[in-house]
Target: Alpha-1,4 glucan phosphorylase
Amino acid sequence: MEMTKEEFKKELQQRLKEKYAMDINDASSQELYNVLGSVVKAYYSDAWSNTWKDYLEDGQKQAYYFSIEFLPGKMLKSNLLNMGILETVEAGLADLGVSLDELAQVEQDMALGNGGLGRLASCFMDSIASCGLPGNGNGIRYDYGLFKQRFVDGYQVELPDEWLRNGNTWEVRKESKAVDVLFGGNVYLAEDTDGQLRPVYEGARRLRAVPYDTAVLGYQNHLVNTLRLWSVEIPESEEDHYRSIEDRRAFEDLTAVLYPDDSNERGRQTRLWQEYFFVSAGVQSIIRYYLRLNKPLDVLNEYVAIHINDTHPALCIPEMMRILMDEHGMSWEKAFNVTVKVMSYTNHTIMAEALEKWPVALMKENLPRMYQIIEELDRRFVNELTICYPENPELIQRTRIIQNEQVHMAHLAIICSHSTNGVAKLHSDLLKEVVLHDFYQLFPERFNNKTNGIAQRRWLQLANPKLSKVLDQTIGTTWRKTPGDLKLLQNYVEDQTVLDQLAEAKKSNKQRLASYIEETTGITVSPEAIFDVQIKRLHAYKRQLLNLLHILKLYFDLKDDPKKVQESRLFIFGAKAAPSYTYAKSIIKAINEVANLINNDPDINGRIKVVFLENYNVHLAELIIPAADVSEQISLASKEASGTSNMKLMLNGAITLATLDGANVEIRDAVGDDNVVIFGMTEREVYQYYERQDYVAKDYYDQSPVLQRILNAFVDGTIPNIYFEGREIFDSLLKHNDEYFVLRDFDAYVKAQEKIDGLYRDQHHWQQMSLMNIANAGRFSADDTMMRYAEEIWHIEPVEQYSKKKG
Ligand code: CJB
Model:
């Protein structure tokens, strides 16, 4: 995909003429962006069609990553980088008086996900292609992405995200690949002309699933995989079935909105429809493609691996069974055998409320054939277990798929797939030992760990060009392809020049963020302050509240003793709360009010500032992360399955301040105790409290004048304008006994923060710690994670010709 600067300029101007009959100077940014997009697309289109044709011709086994969320963010620069023409295009545009950065702003963030789970899926897409692996994504093309967050009087307000308003340059509508999906009605089995039992559908609703494909470019390796997102339409033949416009709208709305919940069960009919819709469309299209290989369906697993990302796509299992049996006449036993070998499943949380369960009645009514198959899967599982463990009926009751009139999606996914993995070592251990222990006893060989990873191209090369340049000058450029080579930086830990250059890059990123903060909030912040960052969804278990309590402590300390020695701090928050999660929204309001109080208090004089940036998204993360000094990873131990912002922040040289939760444990192992600040209860201690049931949050309050002052501030008017929210938070800690042990960990957290303060004062040492974090972040590359999925779960290999070109 070579292209010179002059060729690029010519092509751009030519296309601008063709499309808008305009010269560069007359075009708006949007028009230029559209045309640039079409130039880029034209450049990869050959490689795209070659890739899937090659896969087909070579009978290549492919993986399909099914996820109800993808969160790619902006794609222009990432595509340019992966094509190897980022600099050429940047320079060509500059010649024409256009800034690439400004054009890139025009692109809407593609926010078809809530948080970690969706962003992980997108990092994985990038890495699968970059490793030369044959793998594709399958999901939903929501008309509206995750809501836009605004603050009004400190409250979160949600606005619709009309990301498609100006079109989407990257997608290609594939009308000819549309498939039909059936919902509702009655299904019964009747003998067909060939003597086989086949389902007969009565009164089912037929909807059309139309795919929109997006190219997923590998990093400079000529490989282009596909992210296929499905959109609903009403087939012409069905028009008569709609009695009114409202009736029609209800079905058209199927792919309208992304459910804005994160780690929370959503028992709504539309959500169930969404799940079946993209699963059925995806599996049907895989089978259709497979049949072109002219291979028998009972060796499907030699050519196809389907990954179930969390339980939302778990209906892949009964849908595959349906297609194999109902449409291709396979026996139950054979179909089950193949299905298990094709499917694999990742669990992303141990939070009980996130473990999906669907009421039997709802499933029966909306997806009758799915329910019949699930019921049979459950019946056979129970039969088998009754034979193997006749003495243990409780085990059967605990593990069966249908319990108490509910379908347990995780049970379905584990029982009917060949692999279940957690997303960090601690999380996978907890799955085996506690949360899924029964299943681990039944199927020990199915359980494995795959620690999450991040696409280092986006989170370092694109987000932090300043640091990237220092790295190129210091250790060469191989880290760009092989993130493990970042390790070479360790050799410079005593090199003052390199340390100064790293500090300079950080400072410049802090300045960039400071300007953004000033522009968007009007708050002036000093780049000299410690930039202390907590960016993630707002959730009680992630304990943004603990951060806030500590901020209040610093505030009161400075009020009491204005001469107290303390580094200046800027506390930065970025977080969306699910619209229905009132407690999380109260915390947002409280943080905003505390920010107002502190930022405007002349006694504090800017020594502490608090900024809650609106509308945290991938793009904002790219701005915040390179500027961070401190990475707050302070969830209650055992609750954060992995975390991935922790990896992005360390990669950009922030020091992790963390509990031993999720992947923080592995970050500690990677950088060593001296280069991370750990505090708080271990997961074992948390479980001991659960066993003994002897946590009394109020004791901590009663015994600590410091905590009394801080907590009282929520209800005595010290923090203004939070009459209801303050009471809710106060009661959550004292009346409802502090579910996430905030008060129990408070003292340890304060000490850890004091340690951070002391470490930062010794700038030389701080820079050394920062360097060690960058140097050891390579192991969290999603490339490595994907290679492990490929080898150990999907059994696919990098395509030879691409890996050669890559090498
Ligand atoms: N996660 O973002 C979500 N949504 C869910 O519904 C369940 C889990 C997160 O997934 C990330 C990717 O594995 C994890 O890093 C994170 O800890 C987890 O909360």
Notes: The pocket of CJB is lined by residues 115-117, 120, 262-263, 310, 348-349, 354, 423, 452, 640-644, 662 (CB under 6 Å). The chain has a mean pLDDT of 96. The first helix runs from residue 5 to 20. DSSP finds 32 helices and 25 strands in the chain.
